Amino acid sequence: xxxxxxxxxxxxxxxxxxxxxxxxxxxxxxxxxxxxxxxxxxxxxxxxxxxxxxxxxxxxxxxxxxxxxxxxxxxxxxxxxxxxxxxxxxxxxxxxxxxxxxxxxxxxxxxxxxxxxxxxxxxxxxxxxxxxxxxxxxxxxxxxxxxxxxxxxxxxxxxxxxxxxxxxxxxxxxxxxxxxxxxxxxxxxxxxxxxxxxxxxxxxxxxxxxxxxxxxxxxxxxxxxxxxxxxxxxxxxxxxxxxxxxxxxxxxxxxxxxxxxxxxxxxxxxxxxxxxxxxxxxxxxxxxxxxxxxxxxxxxxxxxxxxxxxxxxxxxxxxxxxxxxxxxxxxxxxxxxxxxxxxxxxxxxxxxxxxxxxxxxxxxxxxxxxxxxxxxxxxxxxxxxxxxxxxxxxxxxxxxxxxxxxxxxxxxxxxxxxxxxxxxxxxxxxxxxxxxxxxxxxxxxxxxxxxxxxxxxxxxxxxxxxxxxxxxxxxxxxxxxxxxxxxxxxxxxxxxxxxxxxxxxxxxxxxxxxxxxxxxxxxxxxxxxxxxxxxx
Length: 536
Known about the structure:
Elements: H1 2-5, H2 7-11, H3 24-29, H4 39-43, E1 72-88, E2 91-112, E3 119-133, E4 136-143, H5 149-157, H6 170-178, H7 195-202, E5 207-211, E6 217-220, E7 224-248, E8 252-277, E9 280-305, E10 314-320, E11 324-337, E12 342-345, E13 349-356, E14 360-369, E15 373-383, E16 388-391, H8 398-407, E17 410-423, E18 426-435, E19 458-475, E20 478-494, E21 519-535
Antiparallel strand pairs: 1-2, 1-21, 2-3, 3-7, 4-7, 5-6, 7-8, 8-9, 9-10, 9-11, 10-14, 11-12, 11-13, 13-16, 14-15, 15-17, 17-18, 18-19, 19-20, 20-21
């Protein structure tokens, strides 16, 4: 609320009106990552930073590749089933999506220098891995308790780009209402009015109602009765890692990984609402299409130390630089309304921008008992509030970054893993991950009064728990590993921000009596993986 009340003062210093389109939710989406890699790595919960010896460790602690003493090539396939259950005031919804994907493929080339030299091995590795899987579908519906997305649209119509109470003039309202052929989006007026406001006015969802003390008309929305929301997300973030590592005296292992990232995210959503406006019952539906593509680059540096020569215990440290992304968004919307039998579509907005994720720090412990048992533990920290959004010319998005620092926080991740060889050829594995929530309590999506974004929905993800088990079998130089991963994460979803309401003469949005209850969401993912590999 504080940042909304300060918008007028913060923006009055701006000499150029900017069109905004990125939010803290976009920043979090491309900062978080999934547990993924080889089936052995996943089966042990990814807790292999100090143990090393698996190609996937080049994405957590690059020094782990220094433990290879032979060449290795591997590839991994997975079948992922994502289930989403929603509960909006005891009205429940459920969706499932299953997808077969190619999650990992890589090779390590091990080069031995000798048994007497300090430098024993210098190894090179290349690995592809799926860093993030966005595939997800969700449905929610229920009673809106008189609240409506149109309240948010009305607030945008009553506020200028500086956050002050300045309703759209009747002349401009009539111009917007009458330009039903799409010419609006190429006119000068769009720099001052949001695309959502245009759709709302043309579709009859908001209109002028009364005058304030200064004689200005102000706009109201409609009471909402029933809501239905559906969304479908797909795509992912793919990482291509290139590693160089070294083994020094079998006690110190050093590594560096340079990663290149490919982003492909696609979301389509459907929002419908039944309500009443000026005595007439109305129905409308808003369809949004949103797509992000881009590339990124980062680097990781790691060390593993075995402090006592006679002991198998070792610890690892790794530092990950921010990932520097160059991204492009494309979004558009379509509104269908029963009032005036309206059907309208926005233009396609195209925005190029940059995203810098936070530094990441990793500390790990590893120990082996003979040749039969391996134990691993890891702690990782990343301060999500330090994520930076920039325009495509490198200039910081100051307001957006303020939202990020206010609504995101540091994320702590803990990983545990164990592997036991029942016989030399056969292994069993288990692991566990816990990650704290990235969002502060009460975070919400802010849209500017002149925003091109029309997707008002947002989801605050809570803590994440991951449980894994795995099996491994060696046949000479060949090996086959299998793993199962269960991920459970709750979240709170809102189809719009119910803090938007309006009283004539009030120059900032306020919290109305009784905010829209959160839709409680249970996100579950079942993933089955298989890795085929060859060491030579």
